[in-house]
Amino acid sequence: MNLEGKVALITGGAGGIGKGIATAMIKHGAKVVIVDINKEAGMSTQRQLSEFGSIHFMEKDISLRESASEIINEALAQFGQLDILVNNAHASRQAPFIETTPQDFELSFHTGFYPTVNLMQAAYEQLKKNKGFVINFASGAGISGQVNQSSYASAKEAIRGLTRTVANEWAKDGINVNLISPIAKTEGVQQWREKFPEQYEKVVSGIPLGRMGDPEKDIGEVAVFLSSESSSYITGQTIMVDGGTLKLT
Ligand SMILES: NC(=O)c1ccc[n+]([C@@H]2O[C@H](COP(=O)([O-])OP(=O)(O)OC[C@H]3O[C@@H](n4cnc5c(N)ncnc54)[C@H](O)[C@@H]3O)[C@@H](O)[C@H]2O)c1
């Protein structure tokens, strides 16, 4: 799974799964652009990963509509091409549905769903030219209907519907578009654990493989596979990288 000569752009790449993917991709030879709202974490990740290869950190809020074209233009100015787009960042607030506000739905759709739409559209010409790969992010919360996660689960399932459609439309262009539905130990999961400890324990104790995933070794390596020629006959699929928790039929 060699990514040499490829350029990958990863949203939310400063921490968590995004950082794990950036690490795996750079180790497999890709030049990597990480986009994140957290400047301190982004700069730190850029410093850490620069020992493995070429990396560029971009401080951006992906929820702003104009960010998409700015992000693609800056990535092209930096590395001259784009082959892999990973729509990983997603922010949300968990609460019982009856307490969930319009702002909660806006937060989830404007950090998860719309940036996925906008960045895929902004990257299309490059992805078409290079027969590229897109990886979007789903969640078991959406697939199984986790309680207290209505705004997040809805945006995640919207991303799945979008991904299947775009995969079918872009197949003729040689662009593969897939989803990862992960479980991994990250800062985001830690915050959820603090708010809903019982729900967290239930999810973790229900993982057949008996552990939380590692952002680089478990999720990052699958993302490398989904961005390489080895996966060229897979598109429109949700790949469950969750220790066996959910089985799609
Ligand atoms: N970790 C899990 O177990 C798990 C489970 C299911 C789905 N997911 C999905 O996997 C992806 C990564 O999850 P994670 O746990 O690593 O998340 P995380 O919360 O730990 O990290 C998300 C990153 O995105 C950045 N970000 C947030 N809002 C942003 C914005 N507006 N603009 C730019 N950057 C922004 C954050 O600063 C952070 O670096 C998400 O799509 C998440 O929904 C994760």
3D architecture notes:
By secondary structure, the protein is an alpha/beta fold. It has nine helices and seven strands, in the order βαβαβαβαβααβαααβ. 49% of the residues lie in helices and 14% in strands. Helix 4 links the parallel strand 4 (84-87) and strand 5. The chain is globular, with a radius of gyration of 17 Å. The model has no long low-confidence stretch (mean pLDDT 97). Bound molecules: nicotinamide-adenine-dinucleotide (NAD). Residues 6-186 form the Ketoreductase domain.
What is the structure about, briefly put?
Belongs to the short-chain dehydrogenases/reductases (SDR) family. The protein has helices spanning 16-27, 39-49, 67-79, 102-130, 140-144, 150-170, 187-195, 197-205, 215-226; strands at 7-11, 31-36, 55-59, 84-87, 133-137, 176-182, 238-241.
